[in-house]
Amino acid sequence: MKPVVVFRHVAIEGPGYFATVLERRGIPWRLVAIDRGERVPAAPDAFSGLVFMGGPMSVNDDLPWVRPSLALIRAAVADNVPVLGHCLGSQLMAKALGATVSRNPVTEIGWGTVDVVDGAAAGRWFGECGRQLPCFHWHGETFSIPTGATRVLSGPHCANQGFALGPHLALQCHIEMTAGMVDAWCAAGAGEIAASHSPAVQPAASIRAETAAWLPRLQRVADAVYDNWMSGLAR
User: Fold this and answer.
1) N or C terminus: which one in the chain shows less Cβ crowding within 10 Å?
2) Strand (E) or helix (H) holding 123
3) pLDDT tens readout for residues 15-36
4) If you average pLDDT over every residue of the chain, what do you get?
5) What is the DSSP string of 173-198?
6) Residues 6+ apart with CB under 8 A from 10
7) β-bridge pairing 162-165 and 150-154
8) Contact indicator for 153, 233 with CB cutoff of 8 Å
9) How do residues 157-197 score in pLDDT, each as one tens digit?
10) Strand, coil or helix: 101
């Protein structure tokens, strides 16, 4: 089968647990390291699916890879090539599909939960996961829901935590985390955490202390969600 392509925008925000699931399922994949200056492909036809990871930048920034990424997402949706977005990746998907990306009322950083929205679309993606999902947050922006898409996840500090459109899934929250990623993000983001007055930001020490309890639950959800997304890949 054609490989899944994963777009990394910053070195410490790679595919994480998603790569583990791909390799466990024997699905070939390729990394495009935007952070190293690699170019965004012009078309999706060489890939069975597109996956966009997170990053501290905004999709509204004037960065050289943003417009090509938006164009690639639109082409993939038109060609029914499944797209999956994590945090920044979900915001790229939203903007590509005509929605807006703007500041969230508060910054969210740390462990928490999101609610599965009632409806068939959310049931398809999260039906076996329960009504409330463990997740990891690290974002200051949010998206509106694109026309034709359906909100599937919501949270107390961010109304739009996920949307689905056919085989395409956008997640504002993070389900790709590993223990190493949590530790690296806490180290890199220590200044941001310390400077924040948001009620939805956990201290770095608390995030690290809670990882052992939260991570196995998160990865069980990730297994189910990634399996559902991978079921749409062309074989």
Assistant:
1) C
2) helix 120-126
3) 999 999 999 999 999 999 999 9
4) 97
5) SB----HHHHHHHHHHTHHHHHH---
6) 35, 54, 55, 56, 57
7) antiparallel
8) no
9) 999 999 999 999 999 999 999 999 999 999 999 999 999 99
10) strand
